Amino acid sequence: MVAPGVYLLVVDPIIINTRLSKVLMDGSSNLNIIYLETLDLLGVERAQLQPSVGGFHGIAPGKKALPVGRIDLPVYFDMTTNFRKETLTFEVVGFRGTYHAIIGRPGYAKFMAIPNYTYLKLKMPGPKGVITVSSSYEHAYECDVECIEYGEVSTKASRQSTLGYTHGSSLSVDGAQATNLMAT
What we know:
CATH topology: Cathepsin D, subunit A, domain 1
Helix content: 25-40%
Number of helices: 4
Order of helices and strands: EEEEEHEEEEEHEEEHH
């Protein structure tokens, strides 16, 4: 069901030289996050990571997340004659997520981007006028469903781990599913 203003803004920028189809634009986050799996997809060596300043809260409910490092990466929006490139600093996390990366307020500020959640658009200045990055309700809905399914898998694994179960084949199947979500 299409409900304007309900879905998250998921865009497809180019990071380094790869178009990533699931990058969450999160105007409520005070940092940019990228996952180790995404860095592997981009061919980035872990030796390129710089030390992180410290941990942060709000990613995994009730837990402090400790990044494995930070990295500066070029991010491009639009690749026509009117494109925008900025270098963003990402905190690199070792856990899995349903998105390739999350661009927060530092990314919005660097690109001088303005989101419109009703129409799932992101606007920013470009060298030849305004750049409009569009998403779709269908894509946002699919990402939302993947996020919910991944949350259920993660909760199940966490409960089984807390209860003393060993990670059996059903969890490795779920883990493979989460990996496949990253690759699409």
